């Protein structure tokens, strides 16, 4: 969880346009890579926002709404950049509201329904541990815009991880009931976590250019944070592989995403272009 | 009213000091440290503004208010641009702003804690919690109630002496 881990950049950062002028073949992978980032924060942000008005305590309700707001803020930056790199005149809103499930590139972990507050917090923690490790790398991206967005988001995600890990420890090492619920949440979510650190050809191309890290390189940092926190929370790390539920980052989703999008996209689908 | 001569950057900043933050009207956008640069591009006045938090809903309102205020001052062409880098830090709050916040009942950020958000983990491991002074009675016998408060930039606290709840402008 150290905030001061720095990774030496491969090369001085350059604006995305300059990078693409030198390597135009990176445009398509980069759009996908940016959508993977923006879709992860969008879908998780939407899930967390579902708690608004339903939190178990007023403070928790407000905290979850604030967390959702940060994640949606990150989404605007990532999808905004994705749309700009794509260069087809689409906006961040177009990408969020006018794509169908198969075009979303978020990991499956973030589309799993919230369940109880225990599962919601456990999911946030498992995600935050990865998100934090990722952003620590991205601040040294070879693309200036990505490094700048990451530097902004990292401050907020540092706060997210601190809070979610604290709650996992309190509830895991809490009452018999809270312990059982946190363990059940962990057991249910565990098979989805491996996808976060599972790379493909797109990742490899972007990693080679120093734009995004190889997902596998984040595994040790994620593992260290997760195991340390779970031990403190007196929760047992599930046995067995954690990478069996994969495919979201390639557009193969669970049935849950369609229901989520039906709600999230309703207004823009029914009244295209509607503005506040 | 349309002005004849271009105001210099210092004048524009003075004008912007009259634009209140929509959520915390006691401080201005310049107090908050979010106005990053002011300059002319041909006949257009360009103001660079950085968001406090990525998803802060006040950002759009602030940009509109800056635009409206400068037009009311007689500047015909204004463009407000968003700046991401360097990311906003509570270190940029002016001394004046800190006093205004305190007077308004919001504890200002504790100096030197930006970037180290008062790690709950450090506290759990026996470390000292950042001492936040109550804006009403100045007691440091205070306790965090929630990491998040009424806006993205604040946390909720309670004073152990005067027993009043208060907002703390959290450090990032």
Automatic annotation (TrEMBL), chain A:
Transmembrane segments: none
Signal peptide coordinates: none
UniProt GO cellular component terms: cytosol
One BP annotation, GO: phenylacetate catabolic process
Name of the protein in question: 1,2-phenylacetyl-CoA epoxidase, subunit C
Gene of this entry: paaC
From TrEMBL, chain B:
Lineage: superkingdom: Bacteria
Domain (MIP18 family-like): residue spans on this chain: 10-80
Pfam families, alphabetized: FeS_assembly_P (PF01883), Zn_ribbon_PaaD (PF23451)
InterPro entries: Fe-S_Maturation_MIP18, FSCA_dom_sf, MIP18-like, PaaD-like, Zn_ribbon_PaaD
PaaD zinc beta ribbon domain boundaries: 125-170
Protein name per its UniProtKB record: Putative 1,2-phenylacetyl-CoA epoxidase, subunit D
Gene that produces this protein: paaD
């Amino acid at each position: 969880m150290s905030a001061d881990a720095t990774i030496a950049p491969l090369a001085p950062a350059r604006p995305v346009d300059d990078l693409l002028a030198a390597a135009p073949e990176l445009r398509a992978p980069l759009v996908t890579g940016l959508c993977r980032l923006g879709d992860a924060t969008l879908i998780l942000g939407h899930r967390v926002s579902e708690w608004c008005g339903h939190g178990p305590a007023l403070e928790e309700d407000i905290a979850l709404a604030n967390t959702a707001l940060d994640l949606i803020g990150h989404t605007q930056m990532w999808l905004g950049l994705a749309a700009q790199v794509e260069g087809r005149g689409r906006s961040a809103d177009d990408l969020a509201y006018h794509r169908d499930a198969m075009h979303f590139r978020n990991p499956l972990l973030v589309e799993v329904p919230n369940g109880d507050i225990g599962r919601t917090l456990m999911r946030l923690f498992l995600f935050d541990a990865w998100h934090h490790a990722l952003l620590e790398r991205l601040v040294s991206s070879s693309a200036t815009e990505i490094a700048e967005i990451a530097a902004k988001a990292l401050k907020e995600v540092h706060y997210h991880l601190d809070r979610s890990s604290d709650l996992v420890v309190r509830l895991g090492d809490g009452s018999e009931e809270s312990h059982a619920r946190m363990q059940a949440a962990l057991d249910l979510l565990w098979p989805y976590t491996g996808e976060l650190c599972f790379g493909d050809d797109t990742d490899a191309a972007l990693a080679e250019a120093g734009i995004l890290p190889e997902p596998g390189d984040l595994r040790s940092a994620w593992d260290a944070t997760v195991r340390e926190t779970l031990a403190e929370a007196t929760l047992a790390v599930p046995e067995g592989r954690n990478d069996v539920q994969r495919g979201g980052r390639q557009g193969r989703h669970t049935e849950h995403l369609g229901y989520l999008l039906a709600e999230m996209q309703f207004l823009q689908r029914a009244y295209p272009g509607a503005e506040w | 009213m349309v002005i004849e001569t271009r105001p210099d950057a210092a004048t524009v900043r003075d004008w912007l000091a009259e634009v209140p933050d929509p959520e915390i009207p006691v401080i201005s956008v310049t107090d908050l440290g979010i106005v990053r640069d002011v300059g002319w591009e041909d006949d257009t006045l360009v103001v660079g503004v950085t968001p406090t938090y990525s998803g802060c809903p006040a950002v759009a309102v602030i940009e509109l208010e800056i635009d409206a205020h400068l037009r009311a001052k007689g500047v015909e062409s204004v463009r407000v641009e968003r700046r991401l880098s360097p990311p906003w830090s509570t270190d940029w709050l002016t001394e004046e702003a800190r006093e205004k916040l305190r007077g308004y009942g919001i504890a200002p950020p504790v100096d030197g804690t930006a970037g180290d958000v008062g790690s709950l983990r450090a506290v759990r491991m026996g470390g000292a919690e950042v001492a936040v002074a109550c804006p009403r009675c100045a007691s440091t016998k205070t306790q965090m109630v929630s990491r998040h408060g009424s806006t993205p930039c604040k946390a909720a606290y309670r004073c152990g002496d005067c027993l009043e709840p208060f907002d703390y402008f959290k450090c990032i």
